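In the laboratory, one determines a bound structure by crystallizing the protein with its ligand and collecting diffraction data. In a computational setting the workflow is compressed into a single prediction: the sequence and the ligand go in, and a structural description comes out. We illustrate the idea with zinc ion.
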Amino acid sequence: MGTGLTSKCACGYEAESSVGSSRRMHGKEFFFPHHCKTCSKVVSVDLLAKPVCCSHCGSQEVTSYAAATKLLDSKETLSHLDPKLLNRLGHHVAAQVVDSAFCYRLEKTFVLTNIANDCPRCHEPTLKFAASVFYD
Ligand SMILES: [Zn+2]
Ligand SMILES: [Zn+2]
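The predicted complex, in structure-token form:
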């Protein structure tokens, strides 16, 4: 199962990317949005490719948008903190999760949140992702 994503920033930057893979390519490719420093764009990168690189320019100068923060239960008092502060403390809450996908080849769950995603154009942490389409 894959998810098509649109991302938008207050500066006007817009891009499309994807998470996961189609059923046909399941276990063969696993895409996740990355920031390619060479293209200065949001690109989908296949994490099962060797080497892991930008699908447009082949650069390995790509940074994943996967959240480094951990999911916090909404029952926790901390979860009521300002999202940016919570992010600095290393957490996010379920409401901030745009998409979450388990890659069995890498035995890892990749989570995309809407907090602290750097925009490749204005370099502010204001890039927002939204799921636009789900594909099989
Ligand atoms: Zn690139
Ligand atoms: Zn921007």
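The longest strand covers residues 128-135. Keep in mind that any predicted model is a hypothesis to be tested, not a measurement.
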